[in-house]
Automatic annotation (TrEMBL):
This is DUF4327 domain-containing protein. InterPro entries: DUF4327. It holds the Pfam family DUF4327.
Amino acid sequence: MVKLQRSVQSLLESDIIKPTDSIWKIALLYGDEWQYWKQELLEFGFTMQDPISELLSVEAWDEE
C-alpha cells in the first residue's frame, strides 16, 4: 500500500488528480493492476467514492 500511496502522491503533485477526487479516478491510470489495488483498498476499509486525500492521510499501513 505504501507503493500505491507514493504513486498517488506523485500523481497529485503532477496535477493529474486532485485530493478531492474520488479514489475510483485512479483506476483509469492503473489499467490491469487496478483489480489488485482495488481489492487492497477495500480490505483496508476504503470505498471507491472516498476522496484521494483519505488514502494519502494514512501514516502507517498495518500489512501482514
